[in-house]
Amino acid sequence: MSDWALERLQPEYVKRFEPYVPNKPDPELMKLYGSSRLYRLNNNENPLGPPLAAQEVLRRFAPSRAAVYPSGDSFYMREKLAGRFDKHPEQFLVGNGANEVISFVMKAFCEPGDNIITADKTFAVYEWVADFSGIEARLVPLKDYTFDDQGLLDRVDERTKVVFVCNPNNPTGTYWSTDRLRRFLDAISERCVVVLDEAYFEFVEADDYPDGMRMFDEYPNLVVFRTFSKMYGLAGLRIGYLAGGRQLVDAIRRTCIVYSVNSLAQEAAFAAVEDREHVQRTREMVRKGKDYLLPELNRLGLSCVAHEGNFVMIQLPISDTLAYRKLMREGIMVRTMTGFRFPNFIRVTISRIEVMQAFVGALARVLHSQRGGATDR
Amino acid sequence: MSVPSRGLRLTVNADDRFLQVATSFVEKASLALGLDERAALDLTLASEEIFTYVCHKASPGALISLASRGGGYYVEVDFGFEAREFNMQAFNLTSRVARRADESLEETGLVIASRMVDRFHFSQDGRRLRITLVKERSYPAVEALPLPESKPLSMFAIREPDPEEVKLCVRLVLRDYPPQAIPFSFRSPGKIADMVSCGELRAAIAVDRGGSVGGGIVWRWRGSKLVQSFGPYLFAQTIESGVGKALVDACLTSIARTPAIGIISHSLASDLAAGFFEPLGTVTIRLKDGRVHENALYYRHLEEDLGLAVWSDPAIEPFLRREYERLAFAREIRTVRDDGEAAAYAVLSAGLDREAARATLHPIWWGRDSRETLAAHVNMLQKEGLPNIYFEMDIGRAWHCHFAPALMECGFEPRLLLPYAGEGDLVVFQHRGG
């Protein structure tokens, strides 16, 4: 195809995009950076892996079943979720990770000229999907590292279709309390759809943290996102879901891609969803990890933003992207935060103590090499 | 990411009979896009030289596309044509200059044209060749106006400036900073205001509630992947005040979710740089008045480095290894070999910036005469009064590395390594001069 044809065929807003380039596979990165180990502290994966019941499903999955299409709408999975949360199966849509259900919602309600509203420093995919779809993304600055409810309300107009609230927020870990969320939903009324992204729901233990799943009757414009990629350790299988009132979910179903969730993911998630012991074990690991990490960071003279979730954001005295490269040489992969509009911050997944110790040691060496002075480690 | 606001296009056969059509197009378009008559005439005469030259080098039936665009403070004319219709060697600036002892020293139309415009650039994208002429609007020289006394700000906010604030900031920079820390274009405050208005430059300033300006920073795109920033310039603010950090933050935040993968910073205080940037190295700036100074550049990558394979020649491998180690970029270095492949002649493209007395050479084609071609270019550019001569080698393209030995022999040295600035990383060579 000639350049001329491409020029004519491609929409202007798509021409502005740079293709997303994911990380190389771990062995390739290790070879390039010359490291003999790689601790993945970049994606907030669960180092304990999936719940035991889900692991058993993975072990027993017969290879011959790979030849058979999965349930197109995750039939049993939705029934399971309905039972778990006391809802109707039609109140759930399962997608190939939470990223896919973001697209379902955006496609269901937005057309060019419309806008969505979210925070400037939050999970990037709301903004990306909007940009990619030719929809304006209105970004409201965080206030004290938290979604600014009044700021979001101030930006709503007649073309606002969806407001995305990440609760707790990735990467700051801050959250709206039940009261604050209710006040916001009351103020929005039914002017637009409100998405409550609860990707890290299972990590939060605070009493005043809201459970969006219990609010559909009062707020028919509310949609909740959850995922099996974080707490449930199934990131490699890509499965997440949205839930809401039946009428709202029926409207979103029109843009839902069927058959996008594979059989293995559906069955592993089915087995995982009831495992509360796994949730407790993971929470305990995160608690211990933070108890170790935060004083160590303090000792290194670093400030951090640590609230809910299995991650901590650390402010560095050097470029985060330089720190990434130097930590990679030490076999530690973290998430740089420049792309989240937090220059010089890194986000670190909380893992087992020995991994956290390795991270602290590597970080101390990196900072030492930059300062060119002695370190106390 | 330049933002030309308006454009016109004309396509004609590469034939002298269309010369007046082409020059009339350029002249009328230039006036309509905002150039004054003098500047429009210069651009028209330069275009006449290019059109005539291209016609003489073209095969029968070749087409030339002229595109004229206005970018607020300049008008740009592009001549686009297909490479297969031409002998590429003709596009060396030096193609008619002393290549053979018995040949007259007739200058190419390319060189003559370059003297009438502010910027000249010849480039190749696949089979498409492009000659670009840029003529800027005339701006009055900066006047000595009374300026407000700068004072430390107790509280400040960062925001985009309006045009008058842009001009005030430029005047404060000219008042407070030594000449070597100031970009050439800052000599015309109105030009900077126009560059900001048309979107070519982005700017942020720090102001208090009373409107006092404590500092500013500007940045612009350099191609599709790199951003170039100038400043932050601080007026009576210490590093500890946080004004400089807030301005850098504003710049980084604004490009954080764009296709930019790196930012090169100029005019940056070294104590501020340490927290945000890595020293990239220095280049030598030779001013028209003979003064010489070293200009430090800083770099910050904006993404997680995924690692890359790059090409090298033994002549530059020690430089590459040292820089990759220092900057901690993961690279697999592959060495190119000269196995005697036939390649008739080298072709270079040149970008000339007469205001900055700077020329930047890019390889178009490698050939066995690359040393002679480079030497001829250096000779000609020095005679043209352009003592700052650079060569940009994209080490994502193996054949570019074949130029390395010739560069070293001709007095160039590798000065900077710009990660991901080309297909792969870019090595910037500078001629030692003299």
Question: What do these coordinates show?
Answer:
The complex is a heterodimer of chains A (377) and B (434). Chain A is 39% helix and 15% strand. Chain A is an alpha/beta fold and 377 residues long. In chain A, the strands form two sheets. Chain A has a seven-stranded mixed sheet, with helices on both faces. Chain A has a five-stranded mixed sheet with strand order 1-11-12-10-9. In chain A, strand 5 (160-166), helix 9 and strand 6 (193-197) form a beta-alpha-beta unit. The model of chain A is unreliable at 373-377 (pLDDT under 50). Chain B has 434 residues and is an alpha+beta fold. Chain B is built from ten helices and 19 strands. A ten-stranded mixed sheet of chain B has the order 1-2-3-5-4-15-16-17-19-18. A seven-stranded mixed sheet of chain B has the order 6-7-8-9-10-12-11, sandwiched between helices. A two-stranded parallel sheet of chain B has the order 13-14. Chain B is globular and about 70 Å long. The relative contact order of chain B is 0.10. Mean pLDDT of chain B is 88; it is low at 97-105. The interface between A and B is medium-sized, with 35 and 29 residues.
What features would you highlight for this structure?
heterodimer; A: 377 residues; alpha/beta; 7-stranded mixed beta sheet; 12 strands; 39% helix; globular; disordered C terminus; B: 434 residues; alpha+beta; 10 helices
Structural topology:
The complex is a heterodimer of chains A (377) and B (434).
Chain A (H helix, E strand, L loop, with lengths): L2 H7 L2 H4 L10 H8 L5 E3 L10 H9 L14 H11 L6 E4 L2 H12 L5 E5 L5 H8 L3 E5 L8 H7 L4 E7 L11 H11 L4 E5 L24 E6 L12 E5 L1 H8 L9 H10 L3 H24 L4 E2 L5 E5 L4 H10 L2 E5 L8 E5 L3 H19 L6
Parallel strand pairs in A: 1-11, 3-4, 3-5, 5-6, 6-7
Antiparallel strand pairs in A: 2-8, 7-8, 9-10, 10-12, 11-12
Chain B lengths: L5 E8 L5 H14 L4 H21 L5 E8 L3 E9 L26 H7 L3 E7 L2 E9 L20 E3 L3 H14 L12 H9 L4 E6 L5 E10 L3 E9 L8 H13 L6 E5 L3 H7 L1 E9 L5 E10 L6 E5 L4 H11 L3 E5 L11 E7 L4 E8 L4 H14 L4 E7 L9 H6 L2 E7 L7 E6 L3
Parallel strand pairs in B: 9-10, 13-14, 16-17
Antiparallel strand pairs in B: 1-2, 2-3, 3-5, 4-5, 4-15, 6-7, 7-8, 8-9, 10-12, 11-12, 15-16, 17-19, 18-19
